[in-house]
Amino acid sequence: MAHAEPSVAEIERQIDREWNALEPVIEQHNATRQALAVKRRQAQALADRIEPLSRQVDQAMSKVGGLAVRAYKGENASALNAMLANPSPATVVHQLELLDQFARRQQADIRHVVELRNQLSARKDPLDRLIAQLSQTDRQLDAKRRQIDAAITRLQKVRLKAYDNGAGTSLRPAACPTAYPGGAAGRAVTFACAQIGKPYVWGAEGPDAYDCSGLTLAAWARAGVALPHNAAQQRRATAPVGRRELRPGDLVFYYSDLHHVGMYVGDGWLVHASRAGAPVKMKRVDDGPVHSYGRPG
Length: 297
What we know:
By secondary structure, this protein is of the alpha+beta class.
């Protein structure tokens, strides 16, 4: 007996289940990428501070090297011979003092070099460790990026097979926004609505494609409000509001681990970048396990 082909609705449910397992990985990748950018700035700041100290070490080493060359050529010995050849006791005492001063200067110069090199090493060691960490994180991100890309490609093939041309349901089933709130929220929500139809690309924050937190980040950036590129971090960066207090521009967070976010546009509707293979679109706020709500700004 032949098995019936799964319906489009069944395939969509299957993709949703798999996507909900994949999206937390994407959001974690976004958070790691942001942390990596911060670490790179720290590494550059360390390198900038180390550079002038490194030049001082080079200069001090050159000076000490010059002293060593002069000593090798016998300048000290020549001075000693001249001193011994001079019968004047006063001159002998004076020249002995000069030699003593010269020896002390050599010791001071060498000690200065050692101190500078110790300072340089103390500052460079944390930089070297940081660079090693960055390199390791880069490798991990590259591996994770390949896994995510492979998973998205597989899900997209399943979806295209079900739809033939990948077309879905209506992307804008209601006015977006349903009411214009004005101010910063008005600019943010108007921008988000204008992105409807653009593709989902994980890690993207516009202008041609978005992932879930990338869309809300870009929308509120248009209003002059900075948000991190990670749904859970956006929740921490926004003021909590209740369901009855929701107004256009507020963010709606989903799932217990906060791995998805969309923007409320009024009258129970949300704009979000849902997943790979589906463009930015509207949906009902309650279409999914709501965790909490947040208000930027």
